[in-house]
Amino acid sequence: MPNTEQAGRPKLSIWQKICAPFTRKPAQIELTGVENDIVKRIRAVDYETLYERLGYRFQDFVLLRHALTHRSFVNESGDPALEDNEKLEFLGDSVLGFVISDFLYHAFPQFNEGDFSRVKSHVVSEPFLAILARELDLGTFLLLGKGEASSGGHEKNSLLSNCYEAVIAAVFLDGGIQAAREFLLRGFQQRIETLVNDQHILDHKSLLQERAQDIFNCIPSYRLKQLIGPDHDKIFEVELFIQRKLFSTGTGKNKKEAEQAAAKAALTKLNISTHEPASKERG
């Protein structure tokens, strides 16, 4: 006769199984070094399901483990030899930018630089990357400190998007740029084509100008407020005015991006969908 209590229990994740021997210990026992023991218990076979989702098999699974290790886990481990995924995240961001830019350049020769920037800024955004990370179930494999895990870190957009970028870098370091390109295009190509074909990537300035004329009988104006940061990495902050009153602000890596961000913020404030084509006819 089957054990109904056991049958009704939720299925444990990989990391719950790995951590189980430690979490079952009496509360009064000191668990110093548990994180190090957990890392030692992780084997290549533990990533089999993830390999299938990624569509890529790592030659060096330690690279993947590195990409899935958050700084909170490292801090609690106290092991100076254990590294978090932040440097991989930095590299992955650059690989992602290159691959997406290269794809856009060749797939959409009719686009100008502004079109490329709008599409790229949308698909490399934190919410977009977090969606891809969830589809791969990266949160299940992410090594977090106890505090971060208990606060729902496995589902936070910021952690998931950063982890996704770190995984990109791990694929690049393990298999080269072609492996990284193939991995990324499996996740991005169809989505980008759908966004472009359905006109979901907007020129927010044009849409706002059109709507501001309808609502306020005027057009918005923009003013550069300040430049933030060092010369090699400046952030532009722009103010948007409607009827000579400050309505919204936006930031970007150049003035055009900042104006687009300010226009998008204004559209959001006006409860106007930013997924509606500017050229759409209204009855």
- Please count the helical segments: 15
How many distinct folded domains?
2
Output the CATH topology of the largest domain: Ribonuclease iii, N-terminal Endonuclease Domain, Chain A
CATH homologous superfamily name of the largest domain?
Answer: Ribonuclease III domain
What is the end-to-end distance? 67 Å
Largest sheet data: 3 strands, antiparallel
Percent of sequence in beta strands: 5-15%
Query: In which range does the helix fraction lie?
Result: 55-70%
Residue stretches low in confidence (pLDDT < 50, at least 5 long) are 1-13, 21-34, 275-283
Q: Please tally the β strands and state the result.
A: 3
- Tell me, briefly, the overall form: elongated
Structural overview:
There is one protein chain. With 283 residues, this protein is mainly α. The protein folds into two domains: 12-197, Ribonuclease iii, N-terminal Endonuclease Domain, Chain A; 204-269, 2-Layer Sandwich (Double Stranded RNA Binding Domain), CATH 3.30.160. 58% of the residues lie in helices and 8% in strands. It is built from 15 helices and three strands. The protein has a three-stranded antiparallel beta sheet. Helix 7 (86-107) crosses helix 13 (177-197), helix 9 crosses helix 12 and helix 12 (157-175) crosses helix 13 (177-197). The longest helix is centred in the middle third of the chain and has 22 residues, at 86-107. Residues 1-13, 21-34 and 275-283 have low confidence and may be disordered.
